[in-house]
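Forwarding the complex inputs:
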Amino acid sequence: MLFKSHGGVHPNDKKAPANEAVITTIPQPPQVVIPMSQHIGAPCTPLVAVGDEVKLGQKIGEAKAPVSAPIHASVSGKVVAIEPHLNNLGNMVTSVVIENDFKDTPAETMVPATEEDLQSPEKIADIIREAGIVGMGGATFPTAFKITSGWGKVDTVLINGAECEPYITSDHRTMLEHPDELLKGIQLLMKACKVDKTYFGIELNKKFAIDLLNFKGAKEMGIEVVPLKCQYPQGAEKTLIKTITGREVPPGGLPANVGCSVFNTFTAYSVYRACYEGWPAIERVVTVSGSAIADPKNVKVRVGTSMQWVFEQTGGFAKEPWKVIMGGPMMGMAQYDLEVPCGKGTASLLAFSDDEDKTVADPVCIRCGQCIDGCPMNLQPIYMYMYQQKGDVEMLQKLNIMDCVECGSCSYICPGRLHLTHAFKTGKAMVQAHLAELKAKAEAEKAKAEAEAPKAEEKPAEKPAEPAKEEKKEAK
Amino acid sequence: MNEERKLIVSSSPHVRTPRGTQQIMLDVIIALLPALVAAVIFFGVKPLVITVISVVSCVVFEFAYRKLLKKNASYMDLSAVVTGMLLAYCLPPTFPWWTVIIGAFFSIVLVKQLFGGIGKNIWNPALAGRAFLLVSYAVLMTTWAPARFQNADAATFATPLASLHAGQLVPGGANALWDMFIGNIGGSFGEVSSLALLLGGAWLVYRKVISLRIPVAYVGTVAVLTLIFSRGNNHLLWMLQNVLSGGLLLGAIFMATDYCTSPVTPNGQLIFGVGCGLLTVLIRYFGGYPEGVSFAILIMNCCTWLIDQHTAPRRFGVMKGEKKKKEKEEAKG
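Prediction (whole assembly, two chains):
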């Protein structure tokens, strides 16, 4: 039985052209640029130096922090540079540049795990961590950390196969072309999480995939395939949990707070590849689509391949695009430089040449209230927008702006074409800055009081408050 | 590939619904057409002339005001057309054309644009315009003509509302009820045909322009109240005649649901509808005017902000009662 989730919008899914496109391989690029930060958490430090020969799958970056994921060479060849490069978030990130020797010489570490290893949750988590697997849906939260931190708390595993973002079909094709591997990967995740009940939520526009997985015996493995209504953002972590289990993640909380752990479809597939094939997270299926693309495709792309290369190798642009997006159209990031490399969480590359975003010169709110009906987090975007425009941080907090998952439903549905999601991203930053300021002030006052206290030793002012940590980005 | 490519970078989402303000207003205009057809059938060509005059003057005032004040033109959003149609619909078919223009001026310039234009006005422009005309031209606004197929003596003719206001059932029993349903009665030409208005309402709901919350709460409240406090011996007939007479359906479907002047929260919309229904019945029963719809909605318009403030949806992840419990604990601790 499904529970009713609040809100949601129904964008045209535009999946038709790419749905039938079998996953293909494109020629490898002559050079890959691998950013040392492709996940939420501590960035990696390079383990190689300029001039080093590296093998396919060799670990080239690692961080000691618990919330992190190592990074591997996606081709074999020679390290020609270690320098800052633009990444998909618009930041300059230390990246390892490898010149491809087109030999794909595998590293010694690329060996399948033994059956014995695959019996122990700890071992599986270790393999997942070593393989650098992160949330492949785009959130890129380190998977191993999600597993180990959930031990004792998590009783239900959910696999996110909603793929509710329009255009994207990479998960769908993975389900259709690798159902056995996928199911095995899910079983490994269940074992690693120490649970025996798993729900695999799939939107009803992937009927064949649902039937196929059931035919392959998902049920006998303890995996219940749950057909979901097509509705954006069905695949947002909190919404998915609510729809399938009826549980609501408390504000500011994590899925583990309600005993759930959510993994993306491709994450499960990557877990299979890591455990049974020894392949780390160096390849992802990417949907190339959009109005500027003549023939949408699903292609296997090595991490570090530039967008330029992927577009060129898939037939180029049929029309001149005015916008290129890495990720889905609802939550993906617009890019201005096609040299930006694809990462572990890149599910799609989109190029738009039509009037998709319908921006107008003077957006006007007509108070239709559709943003409220569409918000999956039960927020009031109309009023949040008003106070954000005024810069009223206290009212923004009162309206729970920090609950916003930035899914974009409100902006999508807005007939007045207001830039709601944009305003809330800014508003959240404003609230965080405000909180940091308050904290710094309180600490300064505390330090002052201590300094003024008689006989107290002179103390240097306490270090300035760290800005509040970015909230975990929701899965697409 | 060329290096000169210029790409736009903006915040997600990168796609938007094709339905903008203009398309929504177009849907409202379509929904209003059946009532106009009914008006022409029952009152001849006069309603059409009044509607055209009203729409044209509303659009001209909207255009001229924004031009004079050097604001960007907004007439293309079609909201002035909707206002013009609604204003015309609540006028008697015999209304002189020049007063229509005065009403349009009041609606568009004073009620809508002086407050900042679409989305910012406090009162429904068409209703405020009608209220203004009613107090300024009381006689003209209450001079009714019988519908074309009505067997009525023009001299002793009374609208259903006038009978109801006098505490009497509309003569004719069930036959009268059918006339009221299809619109073969006297009254403002846009409000007589309940059938046409319901058709329009169905279109709006089907196109998801409005939700059922406000209309159902509004009409439901009137129905329940008139059923409980009915006058005359046939309770059901009294209730049905109340629901089908006057501007109730026009108001409940097209005016109380006006985006800009009604609450945006789901619970707020229910409260708004119930409030409108309560005030309508109070005015019809105890007020000086036979009709209470326009004043009921205008009064509730004033409460919109207040209602919204107190009907925020339940926060995701916080169950009912949990918040209060927490607050209590915090107060204790």
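DSSP finds 14 helices and 17 strands in chain A.
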